[in-house]
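Morning F.,

Quick status update on the modeling queue. The single chain you submitted on Monday has been processed. Sequence for confirmation:
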Amino acid sequence: MAPKTAKPVMVQFSSIISEKRKLLKMSQEELAERVGISQESLSRMEKGVIAPRFERLQLFAEALECSIADLFRGEDEAGEWAHTIERLLSPLPRQ
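Structure tokens below.
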């Protein structure tokens, strides 16, 4: 469970990366390696303690086989964050 001080978008992100990782039957260690972070950092992200660096969002999306916006999409108000992030990122070049 995320700490009480976590922002709604962070709680949503942490829940989604954990769910998607498990659906892909991927260990924390494997996802962390693909994204270029430590397993400890990934664990803290999945708990909602820390947020990923902006530049790592594309790596998370690729590793979890989804779009960046999908990392923030939810059934509640956090879904609005996904639309905003998607709109802001759409003009940026893909690598």
